[in-house]
Request: fold
Amino acid sequence: MTKHRIVRFLAIASISTLALSGCFTGKRPTLMPDETVPAVSDAAIQEVIAVLNSTPTSNFTIAYEVVTKFGDLHTAATLAFDSSFGTSITIAEVRYIYSADGTTLTCSTITSDCAPGIDESRVSDRQLVSTIFKKATTERMQQDARVAVGSAVASSEVIVDNNATCSAIPVVDSNGATQSKTYCAFNDFGVVASMDTADLAITALSFTAATTADQFSA
Reply:
């Protein structure tokens, strides 16, 4: 391999590592580089995806209720974004921390123990991942766009006193009936405001335009 090709390979590898390693922080404008986000032709779906791939413009904390429909599991969750600290996602007693410096932790709010990296298995019994409020929902919508049986319906809502962009996507369920999967994203914060699909229902319950330091530790 020539020297030029080696340099080019290392540069591409470094970019790929950054794209895969982070959630959203002030230093990372999107979850994925624009060129890696598959195009969606449906304008109503693409509009919500564009919001989810936007950068928060201010610090905030949002509390959610998450319902895992298979088993009717109700889970309290909180997402906090702070441009100085990064992003903290708490699902039940598990806290995922994506620090502004690029490091990540998985912590227990009960024992205060933390381990480096993101351990998604800690919430897999709830059919959740730490990025459900942003990247994972974008991926769900991209999949729904591929199997939709009609055009999505766009709408706007006000959820916990904040404007949200929404899309209802018609798909065929396991019984052969047409159902709509609905997704809403907060315009100013680039995260899920609500979601209702076959397996999950997510609802924002409260919004605070601030964070606290303890949200970014166990």
About this structure: The two ends are 46 Å apart (CA to CA). The first strand starts at residue 60 and ends at 68. The mean pLDDT is 86.
